[in-house]
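Renewal narrative, Specific Aim 1. Our central claim is that a sequence can be written position by position from structural information alone. The example that follows is taken directly from our test logs and has not been curated for this report. It begins with the structure tokens describing the chain, in the order in which they were read.
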């Protein structure tokens, strides 16, 4: 049996490691409270279309997109998600409310059932992609419908990274000539403020399908 002192020191060390790993993180959804979210261009949480189910935020459809009450510039965002068969959703950032819809300003991390949704046939619009712009690399490992995926989005200045289930699958520079060319050749070319905002809201998309989000947390970074 270990001496009591060794046991206590081990527990203190483990606690310190946990605290260090948790430092700087803000919970955007803790499994119960929706206080840090509201509807796009709304003052409160939608009265319909979104609910809390089993510790997750569930979109049912018809409630509109959700945005964070606060704005974020450079940040690291982590969350888990799962979809119903054929479902489509996404997580956008640097979203402005000066336009009709979040996608007019906010680049999107795609959330999708690749197997049954038509967007899954195009790598640039499949799960984990920078929607309609950059496909995931060969490291992508998407879990089946009904299972939880873990995602991470890192935005530092103009540098962006998409992570899916522990693997970096997309990286880009929003201000680069390559990105500007991609935008100019995409559906976003007619949206002059797309990917131009330096900060903005984080957005969970209501695409009309059942999708679940949980363990959502964010850490602000220095640009």
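The sequence written for that structure reads:
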């Amino acid at each position: 049996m270990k001496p009591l002192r060794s046991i206590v020191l081990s527990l203190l060390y483990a606690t310190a490691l946990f605290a260090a790993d948790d430092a700087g993180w803000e919970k955007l959804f803790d499994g119960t409270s929706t206080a840090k979210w509201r509807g796009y261009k709304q003052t409160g949480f939608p009265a319909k279309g979104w609910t809390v189910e089993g510790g997750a935020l569930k979109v049912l459809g018809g409630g509109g997109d959700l945005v964070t009450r606060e704005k974020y510039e450079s940040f690291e965002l982590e969350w888990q998600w799962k979809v119903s068969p054929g479902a489509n959703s996404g997580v956008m950032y640097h979203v402005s409310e000066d336009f009709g819809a979040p996608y007019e300003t906010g680049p999107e991390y795609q959330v999708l059932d690749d197997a049954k949704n038509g967007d899954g046939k195009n790598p640039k619009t499949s799960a984990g992609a920078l929607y309609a712009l950059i496909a995931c690399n060969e490291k992508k490992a998407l879990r089946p419908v009904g299972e939880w995926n873990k995602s991470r989005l890192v935005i530092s200045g103009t540098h962006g990274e998409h992570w899916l289930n522990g693997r970096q699958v997309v990286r880009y520079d929003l201000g680069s000539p390559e990105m500007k060319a991609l935008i100019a050749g995409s559906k976003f070319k007619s949206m002059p403020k797309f990917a131009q905002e330096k900060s903005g809201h984080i957005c969970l998309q209501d695409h009309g399908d059942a999708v679940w989000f949980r363990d959502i947390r964010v850490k602000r970074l220095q640009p």
